[in-house]
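Dear support,

We are seeing what looks like truncated structure output for some complexes. This example has two components. We would appreciate it if you could run it in full and send us the complete token output so we can diff it against ours.
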Amino acid sequence: MEDFLYEVVEITQTIWDGVLFGSTYALIGIGFTLIFGAMGKLNMAYAGAAIAGAYVGLAVSMFLDAPIIFVFAVSALVSTLMGYIVYQTCFRFIPTHNHLAALMASVGGLFLIDEVIVLATRGSPMNFPGLFEDAYFELGPFGIRGDLLFVFFIGIVSTVVLLYVLFKTRLGMATRAVAQQDVAAQLCGINIHRTNSITFSIAGLLGGIAGAMTAAAVGVLSPVMTVPLTIKGLIVTVIGGLGSIPGAIIAGLFVGAFENFFLYIRGIDERDMYVVALLFIFLVFRPNGIFSKTITRD
Amino acid sequence: MDFYLNLINTIGIHTMLGLSAYLLLQTGQLSLAQAGFFAVGSYTAAILTVIFQWNIIPSVLVAMLVTGFLAFLVGFPALRVKGLMLVVATIAFSEFVRMFFYNLKWRVTKNGEEIGPDGTMGFAEIRYFSDNGWSNLEVTFFLWTFVIIIMGVIWWSDQSRTGAVLRAVGEDELAASSVGINLTVVKVSAMTAGGFIAGLSGGLYAHQVTSLDHHSFTVLLGTFAIAYPILGGLSNVFGTLVAVIFIQGLLVEGLRFLGDWRMILFGLLIVLAMNFKPLGLFDKQTIAIIKRSIRV
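Here is the complete output from our reference environment:
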């Protein structure tokens, strides 16, 4: 009985930690979803840009000996800029109906960013400053890591701000108009390229925050993080339903919990296999994601 | 000399890999699963020759059939999702396969030596060619026989009704189904054919490099597989061959003195090529120019 209770507490704790960490996946998922919603295209360079932002933030903080919040601000800013650059180089001049070429270009962008990072850091992982490492709250038998709580908090705040911008401002209205019907939006006098580049920048901003959050929660920053983060982000986007922001949030938290649970019972080597299997289950039984909206464009 | 033969072998294997994605791209499906099929083919063929001591030709053919069947199975659920969702599904499939081989441990003792796939350590005892005294030149001929057969078959299918059907589905699915083309059959067949070719090339690859490691089958390999036909253009098989020679021969081997900068060049090249030639190097324009200059 003692053992059983101990297991229950451990597993609940694991799942709870996973949910908190899942907020980073949720942010990455929202970024993919935003861009997909706006253009109907996948930006594969997205998570790469997020990690690159975190790197620049780290570099600046190392030179200036700045506080941790500053690292977050710089990485968000750099990642915003990267989002804009990715739009200009990989999407702006490629014919809109040619999905293959845009996707391929952004994959090229991902490798470019990846390799620049490898070259700049000589491929070795770097320590990322931890957040409130000594903060630890206890709730009965459970404990809450202060850094994960902070990560979760930032995730919530960014989501709320994003939803405000999207649904309460003129800018958000323009973005949603382009997403719904780009030709009609253009006829109403909305500049599509301008709106799209703003959408990419906003997504980049979220990505930068998510990149810094991931690095802070894991404790290291390494170029091998880009591809797994891209894949996790895509999985979250698909499970949540392409183009759905609430879906991306819930799927992000869920994937975080799911992954941590399997990490606990099966170990690090097999963890990602189960996450991918989860995606397959969704593709077979619920291909449009949790928040099923019929997808008309592909 | 050995260096050049190895390069030629690599070009052959990557051409086959590119052609397996070429068929799928013709039907408008962007699949990153080719890396996964390639991995399945290479592990299957290697297990057959090493653990079961088979001859290489049946092992490679069985690897091809196994992979083709797997592709057939993957084709059905993947068909439920379209376009960009297919990309995500196929990336996930590749990663699943890679993770599977990362965890696969199957050691047996043969002739007082322990052999077989060893999880994270990889699979290192694939010495079929050296055990049977094949020279490097023979290996190259053996390999390129398959490459030429596959290129020939796809070239022929491009000229025939098959190619027209594939292209019709790729151009416009609605139009294609309204002239009586069964979309499911065409797409699953293309997926299966792609699986056959990728499995075959994987089986040959395993014996050419003599050791397998899950690091070789990442998303990067899947990207290479679709990058060749996209960069070369989907009008004919030689576009893929030229793209492979350019990337493997010139960019990866020829510019070795640039070190890590080569990979940056690869990324940059893809971005630039997609901006200036979104339909590939050998699009209608280029082919018209080549035809005109040949006539003059």
